[in-house]
Each structure stands twice: as C-alpha cells, then as structure tokens.
Amino acid sequence: MCENNSKRCSIQMKGGNETMSITQTSSNSWDGLLTNYLKAENLKGSEEVFVCVGVDVKETDMDLEIEREDEKFIFSLNVTNKVFLKNNGIKTPKGVIGKKLTLIKVKAMNPTTRKEVDSLRISKIE
Question: What contacts 24+ positions apart, CB below 8 Å, involve 48-53?
Fold first, then answer.
C-alpha cells in the first residue's frame, strides 16, 4: 500500500516469512536513491557470510538485500551469481530470502574498461 502523496510502497507476500518492500524513486524525494551497495572492499576477509532478507527484481536486474550482524547492504547480482543461485536449488528469485550466502572476493574482467577488478561471487548457499 502506498502512503498518501508518497512514492513509498510496501508489499507483504503471504506464504511464508517473506516480506518484500519496494521504494519507487522520483525526483521529489531521496527515498530509494541512497543505498549501501556491497563491494568487494566491504568484506572483512577473503570470504564472508551474509543473510538474504529481501529481493528486488526489475526486468533482467536482480538485487539482494543482505545483512551481516547490524549492517545492511544491497548486492546487485551479475549473470554468474544469478546462474549460481538457480543451479544450486533456488527455484525462484524470492527463494533466496532467509538463506545464508557465502561471498568470496575474486578477480573479474570489467567488460566496459577491459581491466581486471575485484568482484564478489556467491560460493555457498545454506
């Protein structure tokens, strides 16, 4: 339900403990525009475990809302990580909610700059 004169909406889905919140962006508010995207430099070591608490899918893009202790991040999935989820038993995008994800730092080729950069890969799902 959207609040009056606001672009902030919340949707709760029944059928489990899944909750998904959606914030529509607009030029009238910063809501939904300032997020804490997870980067390789945010990992405390070479690998770390996060819990997925939400999923946002737009067209072919998929972002996970993940937590570590008291920190929350948005983890934008590339094709490699989406395929890993699908091939490891996650039947639908919302099926990853509540799962523990082990993320590792890897080197990957940036397709735009054609340079090797630090990246993140999902290595394990529990």
Answer: 48/102, 48/103, 49/100, 49/101, 49/102, 49/103, 50/75, 50/100, 50/101, 50/103, 51/98, 51/99, 51/100, 51/101, 52/96, 52/97, 52/98, 52/99, 52/101, 53/97, 53/98
pLDDT one-digit tens code per residue, 55-73: 999 999 999 999 999 899 9
State the average pLDDT over residues 5-16: 40
Domains assigned to the chain: 1-31 (no CATH), 35-125 (2.40.50)
